[in-house]
Amino acid sequence: MLRFDHDYAEGAHPRILQRIIETNDEQHPGYGTDQYCDRARLLIQQACNAPGADVHLLVGGTQTNKIVIASILRPHQGVLSPESGHIAVHETGAIEATGHKVLTLPSKDGKITASQVQQYIDGHNQDASNVHTVQPGMVYLSQPTENGTSYSKAELEALSTVCRNAGLPLFIDGARLGYALAADGNDLTLEEIAKLADVFYIGGTKVGALFGEAVVITNPQFKSGFRYLIKQNGGLLAKGRLLGIQFETLFEDGLYFDISKQAVEFAWQIRHAFEAKGFAMKFDSITNQQFPILPNTVLAKLSQKYSFTFWEKVDENHSVVRFCTSWATKAENVAELLEDINQL
């Protein structure tokens, strides 16, 4: 079975594994106070052109979202999110378990707009009985989205402006950020994201690392005490150097961006193959996730050899599925899939 169902099926990039082996017998202080974590933080600050940013290395995405959001919101506040946002649908109520509500906004492609956020804020503020409802306290989005779509620079600038005018911090989930930055059609840089967001994270788990996410806090208001909250929530890894080594390797010479670009190129080859056979896409994704609308008979045939993700049912005879590439996707496996699509 050739897997195209997600982008964390494999272990880690060989260079990361090699570095872990090479440093395995070294002795270092724990909890991220070692030289590898220090250098990883420096490299990420340089990549973001944000020397004053705080960088914290955590283990996974749900853990990261939970700690960041709970650290910012006051008890009576909730977080605005697209209805398809990861925190709303794929984190088992992790945010709600902290006592904060996820306030969802409708979205056809996974993105929310500045006007939607402004309208929600205005509606809350103008409600004479708003004290009886959850107050919006921050805005969450992911880049790219769960549907593979990507915010443009203009869209993110507009969202950032609305958030800052309203005093709501903007938090960007970057679990797949590398794939968004590497995509053709992307006009956002890591430096611009660092300027427009109050907090964001750079995903490693899905982009070459064994595990790990790098939280970047650019707004000084949210820096104080964050390390305490990581520890309190079980996120302060004793062998923190394992995170430092991984992000140091990913960022020391552009590896993070190179392997992301390869994954996106493979995804586009798959998309073009489906389109050449007359199959439409559900979303206009420019990243490593593609969502063809296929007859169920075609799905049955492809599923004999390939693993992919069911997304949603269109009608009795058609479904949307996701084909997802990763940093580790092999060219020969893509070529085999392309040939089989061509034979449909």
Description:
The protein starts with a strand and ends with a helix. Helix 1 (14-22) packs across helix 10 and helix 5 packs parallel to helix 6. The mean pLDDT is 97. The protein has 344 residues and is α/β, with parallel strands linked by helices. The chain has 13 helices and 13 strands. The protein is globular, with a radius of gyration of 21 Å.
Integer average pLDDT: 97
Uncertain parts: none
Straight-line N-to-C gap = 18 Å
Strand residue percentage: 15-25%
Percent of residues in helices comes to 40-55%
| Rg, nearest Å | 21 Å
Give, in spatial order, the strands making up the sheet with the most strands.
2-8-7-6-5-3-4
Largest β-sheet summary: 7 strands, mixed
Number of helices, where a helix is a run of at least 4 consecutive DSSP H or I residues: 13
| Count of beta strands | 13
Shape: globular
Structural class: alpha/beta
SSE run:
EHHEHEHEHEHEHHEEHHHEEHEEEH
Features:
four-stranded antiparallel beta sheet, single chain, alpha/beta, seven-stranded mixed beta sheet, 344 residues, 17% strand, 13 helices
Could you write a compact summary of the structure shown?
This protein has helices at 14-22, 35-48, 61-72, 86-89, 114-126, 153-166, 177-182, 190-196, 226-232, 241-251, 255-276, 296-302, 331-342; strands at 2-3, 54-58, 77-82, 102-105, 135-142, 170-173, 199-203, 213-217, 289-290, 293-295, 306-307, 309-313, 318-324.
Spell out the blueprint of helices and strands.
Blueprint lengths: L1 E2 L10 H9 L12 H14 L5 E5 L2 H12 L4 E6 L3 H4 L12 E4 L8 H13 L8 E8 L10 H14 L3 E4 L3 H6 L7 H7 L2 E5 L9 E5 L8 H7 L8 H11 L3 H22 L12 E2 L2 E3 H7 L3 E2 L1 E5 L4 E7 L6 H12 L2
Parallel strand pairs: 1-11, 3-4, 3-5, 5-6, 6-7
Antiparallel strand pairs: 2-8, 7-8, 9-13, 10-13, 12-13
Helix pairs in contact: 1-10, 2-10, 5-6, 11-13
